[in-house]
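Students often ask what a holo structure prediction actually looks like on paper. The answer is less mysterious than it sounds. You provide the chain, you provide the ligand, and the output is a string of discrete structure tokens encoding the 3D arrangement of the protein together with zinc ion.
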Amino acid sequence: MLARSLFPNLYLGAVIECPAAIILEGVAMAKVLRCRNLGLDCPKEVRAETEEELMKLAAEHAEKDHGLPAAMIPPSILAMVKAAIKDE
Ligand SMILES: [Zn+2]
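The corresponding structure tokens follow.
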């Protein structure tokens, strides 16, 4: 009885929490950003399912490996970074 009442809630929660991931899984597309494409001498490739997630990972990499906190990156550079994102 307890399991039957808990399980539907868990299932419903998962569906509501991440509808975009379910849709993206269907088309199997990934967003890729390569540091090299930004003119940096760095072999790093950042991959994610959405641009939002990719920009988050790219910001972490920029801060950790390039000593460049996201807050220090001007909008013109951010636009360049977004333009360099490829779908794969
Ligand atoms: Zn890099």
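Helices lie at 2-17, 19-27, 51-66, 75-83.
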